[in-house]
Q: What sequence folds into this?
């Protein structure tokens, strides 16, 4: 799996997941270099935990970042989008 060197400018995708089947689509968006905001408000807790685990593995494989903005909202950042020295300001999921 090849990750993009940088995310394209103004390339943010927002996804309100409806089922665990949407996880691959979200992962593909990050692989393509998009910054992705994932909203879990429409799925139950068990599915949310499964999707979070899948996306966590995806982000580790891409050397990206997963930031929990709220309990039901994640920000997925491809590698190189957010500089390491600023990461201390955010809570990592």
A:
């Amino acid at each position: 799996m090849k990750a993009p060197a940088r995310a394209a400018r103004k390339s943010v995708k927002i996804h309100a997941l409806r089922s665990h089947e949407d996880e691959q689509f979200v992962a593909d968006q990050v692989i393509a270099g998009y910054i992705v905001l994932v909203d879990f408000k429409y799925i139950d807790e068990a599915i949310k935990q499964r999707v979070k685990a899948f996306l966590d593995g995806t982000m580790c494989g891409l050397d990206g970042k997963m930031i929990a903005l709220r309990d039901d909202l994640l920000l997925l950042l491809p590698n190189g989008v957010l500089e390491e020295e600023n990461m201390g300001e955010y809570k990592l999921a």
